[in-house]
Amino acid sequence: MTGLKIKIINVGSSGGLSAVKKGIADIAGVHLLDESGVYNIPFLERFGLKDAVLIKGYLREQGLIIRKDSKIKEFADIIKSRFINRNTGSGTRVMTDIMLKKIAEERGMSFEN
């Protein structure tokens, strides 16, 4: 026996940061993209985590799941489609909104997330 007690709770990045701040968790996996294009660091400040450090751990690849009969051939095509976005506050949602906003601006369209 190692004497270690491990409990895994799946709450997402924001929930993990809150748990670290409250002393409920010692470690939280985070993948949050700020609208500035910077990952994670702005959120340490926003959550008031002064006694925490960020350790880079992994990279991940983002993608879309699209029906075979879809007319979507590239990311910009989702502007013309019914699209289910990720939950507000998730890193993937922020990244998607940033990309969609840029595409909308290039096409002279308004963007509301």
What does this structure look like?
It is a single chain. Helices cover 29% and strands 0% of the residues. The chain is built from three helices and no strands. It has helices at 12-22, 41-46, 91-106.
Topology overview:
Elements: H1 12-22, H2 41-46, H3 91-106
- Using the CA coordinates, give the radius of gyration: 18 Å
Strand content: under 5%
Q: How many H/I helical runs? A: 3
Overall geometry comes to elongated
> What is the residue-mean pLDDT, rounded to a whole number?
87
Write down how many β-strands occur, each being a DSSP E stretch of 2 or more residues: 0
State the end-to-end CA separation. 50 Å
Residue stretches low in confidence (pLDDT < 50, at least 5 long) are none
Order of helices and strands: HHH
Helix/strand/pairing category: mainly alpha
Most strands sheet = none
Overall domain count: 2
- Share of residues in helices: 25-40%
Compact description:
By secondary structure, this protein is mostly helical.
Question: What tags apply to this protein structure?
Answer:
single chain, mainly alpha, 113 residues
